[in-house]
Amino acid sequence: xxxxxxxxxxxxxxxxxxxxxxxxxxxxxxxxxxxxxxxxxxxxxxxxxxxxxxxxxxxxxxxxxxxxxxxxxxxxxxxxxxxxxxxxxxxxxxxxxxxxxxxxxxxxxxxxxxxxxxxxxxxxxxxxxxxxxxxxxxxxxxxxxxxxxxxxxxxxxxxxxxxxxxxxxxxxxxxxxxxxxxxxxxxxxxxxxxxxxxxxxxxxxxxxxxxxxxxxxxxxxxxxxxxxxxxxxxxxxxxxxxxxxxx
Length: 247
Hints:
By secondary structure, this protein is an alpha+beta fold. Helix content is about 45%, strand content about 10%.
């Protein structure tokens, strides 16, 4: 089978690209990576060819009459689960070891699917007011909607780490939920302390776990080497900048 191609945006800013990229990396799915510049004219031919929505990420698998194009992050995750990995993305377990009649499996799978869908379709307060900006530390004045999203996210983290996790990821093993909440970790790192927000201990624990993930760290280090500033994705009062632009 031909190696799939994942088209992604700038690593400093593109939260949806991170979700798809991290999922494929974590589940050891081999792929080629094609970055584009968000909002740049150079990206238009690539997006026109592969992305009906004009957005990233896009996964292209196969060629000719076997070509499959998947242009939504959740759809990419589901396609990967069906065709690209021997592991179940909802639990992190090998599919051959999954007992679908096991009550714990059904409960955790349903919970994982629900929080992933919740992140995919909602939480616009934190998304709009805390855009992912890995290299920055920035201060904002979060709205009630943003604070409500953060409270809901912290409740999810606390519930998973108390009731469901046998380790430090949300369900013990790395799952698609960790990939979908990864940009939240980076958003909190950028804005929370500078904005006077105090995070719960379980949230801090989970953020540390994710920031120590080797694939997450590789994405962060690549983001810190980027030089383009996209004004549409800059928010708040920039307190400091790290990476290549810090000099």
